[in-house]
């Protein structure tokens, strides 16, 4: 990857058959649909990919199929998060060997009571960086329960060679992005937000150069980033207003299930199954989701028909 990634780098859902088994053909269709959505890159094996519900063998299968099938059409980011440093390193090396353009990782955590000290976090990321030559995106998310204050993130950007992208999806993400850029801007290639772009305009105001959303509506969100970065801020705001009802419904009511539900409704995948203990959307929530998605005429909603 010779150019900095900007724009929209959505997370690919992991499709399952109705019985819960991995849908390998569905993985390929998901990737093709996302490329048709005009994404700038695709992230696999993230939390919105249900990575925490995959076996090690399934994880390896998803990575192999994804990297082989995308075949360089867009960059692929592989999530490698794990509490054990040795396993995170092994995952990073395997991802790079298979053609990943970047890896994304959360800090090591295993519940709120098992979090390493700051030195351990830095050593964890440094070990991964020393093992590969591709960029690392640090995922700073409330899910981990790990505090990553701006001075620590800035130190990692400054001292760890491949740590150059940051996905900030904490409360008040815009303030944290602005502080991080001010503290270590020259060492940061890609400041990104997440959270389905629910705070995108504020985060762009703060200096974000892109967003990592789900695969639900990249073709609607990417133009917001493009317009904003080209100085067409009013146009970007108008586009964001149009998307906000669906973004809010996904963020607050659906979570990772929204993308799978719309992809199933559009024939991209055969089932919107989520693995237990997750539960499917209620019919009420699903109906509102499909109504809002239909109003925006999403590519995913008609891709497989």
TrEMBL record:
The keyword Lyase applies. GO terms for molecular function: 4-hydroxy-tetrahydrodipicolinate synthase activity. SMART domains: DHDPS. It comes from the Bacteria. SUPFAM superfamilies: Aldolase (SSF51569). Pyruvate binds at residue 212. The keyword Lyase applies. GO terms for cellular component: cytosol. Keywords: Lyase. Signal peptide: none annotated. Belongs to the DapA family. This is Dihydrodipicolinate synthase/N-acetylneuraminate lyase. It comes from Albidovulum denitrificans.
């Amino acid at each position: 990857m010779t150019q900095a990634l900007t724009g929209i780098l959505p997370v690919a859902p992991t499709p399952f058959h109705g019985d819960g088994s991995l849908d390998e053909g569905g993985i390929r269709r998901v990737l093709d649909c996302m490329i048709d959505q005009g994404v700038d890159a695709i992230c696999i094996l993230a939390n919105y990919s249900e990575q925490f519900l995959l076996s090690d063998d399934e994880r390896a299968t998803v990575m192999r199929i994804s990297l082989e099938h995308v075949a360089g059409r867009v960059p692929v980011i592989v999530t490698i998060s794990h509490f054990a440093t040795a396993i995170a390193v092994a995952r990073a090396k395997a991802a790079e060997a298979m053609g990943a353009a970047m890896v994304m990782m959360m800090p090591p955590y295993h519940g709120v009571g098992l979090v390493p000290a700051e030195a351990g976090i830095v050593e964890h990321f440094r070990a991964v960086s020393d093992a590969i030559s591709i960029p690392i995106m640090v995922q700073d998310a409330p899910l981990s329960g790990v505090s990553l204050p701006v001075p620590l993130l800035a130190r990692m950007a400054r001292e760890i060679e491949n740590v150059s992208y940051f996905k900030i999806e904490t409360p008040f993400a815009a303030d944290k992005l602005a502080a991080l850029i001010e503290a270590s801007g020259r060492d940061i290639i890609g400041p990104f937000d997440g959270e389905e772009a629910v705070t995108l305009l504020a985060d762009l105001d703060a200096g974000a150069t892109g967003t990592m959303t789900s695969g639900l509506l990249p073709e609607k969100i990417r133009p917001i980033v493009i317009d904003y970065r080209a100085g067409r801020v009013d146009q970007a705001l108008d586009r964001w207003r149009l998307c906000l009802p669906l973004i809010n419904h996904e963020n607050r009511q659906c979570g990772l299930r929204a993308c799978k539900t719309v992809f199933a409704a559009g024939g991209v995948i055969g089932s919107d199954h989520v693995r237990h203990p997750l539960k499917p959307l209620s019919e009420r929530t699903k109906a509102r989701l499909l109504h809002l998605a239909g109003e925006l005429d999403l590519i995913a909603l008609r891709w497989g028909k």
